Amino acid sequence: MKVCIFGAGGVGGYFGGRLAQAGIDVTFIARGAHLDAILADGLHVKSIDGDFVVHPAKATALPEAVGPVDVVLCCMKSWQVTEAADQMRALVGPQTLVIPLLNGVEAHDILARSLGAEHVLPGLCKLITMIDNPGHIRHAGAAPYLAFGEVDGRLSQRAQHVAQVFSEARGVSVHLSRNIMTQLWRKFMLIAPWSGIGALTRSPIGAIRSLPETRAMLMDSIREVYDVARAVGVPVEEKAIEDTMAFIDALPFEGTASMQRDIMAGRPSELNEQPGAVVRHGEKYNVPTPVNRLTYHSLLPQEHMAGKKLP
Ligand SMILES: NC(=O)C1=CN([C@@H]2O[C@H](COP(=O)(O)OP(=O)(O)OC[C@H]3O[C@@H](n4cnc5c(N)ncnc54)[C@H](OP(=O)(O)O)[C@@H]3O)[C@@H](O)[C@H]2O)C=CC1
Ligand SMILES: CC(C)(CO)C(=O)C(=O)O
After folding, report:
1. Model ipTM?
2. Alpha carbon 301 to chain centroid distance?
3. Lower CB density within 10 Å: C or N end of the chain?
4. Can you give the residue ranges of the Ketopantoate reductase C-terminal domain (predicted)?
5. pTM of the model
């Protein structure tokens, strides 16, 4: 199976690295100093599950130099999807599957509009990784998990084949989902509130969940995302609110979300695709989202200063 990792950062570098380590034919789409370092010295992964190096690693900035592959794993930031989808066309042949692992609930639609819905299997991942230096990925926490599935929940042969090949990646649990849209929104119930309140308070999750004031904000924000999911028509059970809080209560005190880390470091972030998307969907479906609106609007000035054009 030929796999292309579009965006060889924290997520793409890790999962692509593990697939390459298992002997699967992986090409990384990367750019700049990161690409140069991967080509010169390989892709280095420092992981709580054991360090490894992919060397030589197949990597390029030019999808047209790769041509059609069996699977494209999309691992760029949410605000980079539209441009990436354009460049991705060269990787997509009649049988190619495109699996986004990004946070948020919109990437699969953008890809489907650009590449054709028949190519896209919505997906998600859980782990804590980042680029430490060009060519060097760090897996700092969480058991690596990835899930994907057909939008209609069928366990298609093509999806089963990908799941079977991906399960060769060491230490990665791969889940072929019968309800990927529910899983996406359940993750969104966690990540949009945590990212927004984490970035606004500049505090780790342990502090946010311990103080009654910020705990209440977090719970209200999670309920807003739940209400929006229901209004959109995604079957999420109310128990998901409790489960999300239980997950948050089990996180290490110092935990931060990736969008929060970007904002705290003054980098462009997924603000528009996380709390911003909750607000947009709320407006469309007439669901009040006051906490997400507060976090989104309060963080907008900094997002602009980080150089990001926003709608
Ligand atoms: N990191 C984490 O722990 C987790 C992240 N996620 C989600 O996964 C997604 C990816 O996050 P993460 O891996 O942290 O992001 P990173 O910024 O670490 O990685 C994205 C990579 O994609 C590259 N890229 C983007 N567009 C292109 C392009 N057109 N050509 C070549 N390279 C490109 C970026 O390069 P450049 O920097 O030059 O733009 C960057 O190296 C996000 O949606 C995030 O929310 C989900 C779970 C956990
Ligand atoms: C939930 C978490 C922390 C890990 O998957 C994440 O998705 C992120 O930091 O963006």
Report:
1. 0.98
2. 24
3. C
4. 179-298
5. 0.96
Asked if residues 121 and 175 have their Cβ atoms less than 8 Å apart, the reply is no
Non-local CB neighbours of 74 within 8 Å, separated by 6+ positions? 6, 7, 81, 84, 88, 98, 99, 100, 101, 102, 107, 111
Element (H, E) at 123: strand 123-133
pLDDT at res. 307: 79
Ligand nearest the Cα atom of residue 62: 1
* Beta-bridge partner residues of 71: 3, 97
Q: For the residues 115-127, what does the mean pLDDT come to?
A: 97
Residues of the chain with CATH 3.40.50.720: 2-178
**CATH architecture for segment(s) 182-305:** Orthogonal Bundle (1.10)
Q: For residue 305, what is the DSSP state?
A: H
